[in-house]
Fold this protein.
Amino acid sequence: MTTRNVYLVGMMAVGKTTVGRHLASRLDFTFHDTDQVIESRAGADISWIFELEGEERFRDREQQVIEEMTRREGVVLATGGGAVLREANRTVLRERGIVVYLRSGVDLILERTRSDRRRPLLQVDDVRERIETLAAERGPLYDSVAHLAITVDRRPPKAIANDIHDLLQGSREPGAIGTRANVHRCVS
């Protein structure tokens, strides 16, 4: 059984929160979502924080939450899509637990965010272009911090969580999960 915390990274709308809840339940860990913690503490939603304080202040809040949550034990933490932008976050995530990168194609993210007005980075005319740009900028950062990467496209969140659980427990190797999951261990 893994005793290390598990941190989920990846683009917005890939299912980090939903997968994280299922995984925490399987591991008998506590689940936290950095965006939800920030909203709870600020008494306001992320879009409001972005609008009033700007992205930099939001990232300060995010870094503080990640620093705090990664010091706890028995945690599955779903991070915001931009959490990897700060080197300090990448360092503590990588050093204090197992980082799982949930990958998804642009089409799925676009589909899941089409009607979402709560994501401040997507309040632009060309949402597809913005998602493609964010994915290109952040993809290498997700790869650099992850111990394990799994493609989530159109797979049920519970199945993804079960696959991650089995990999963490050592009961299956990446190749045993199957081609639909597209799982691989990242460079240590």
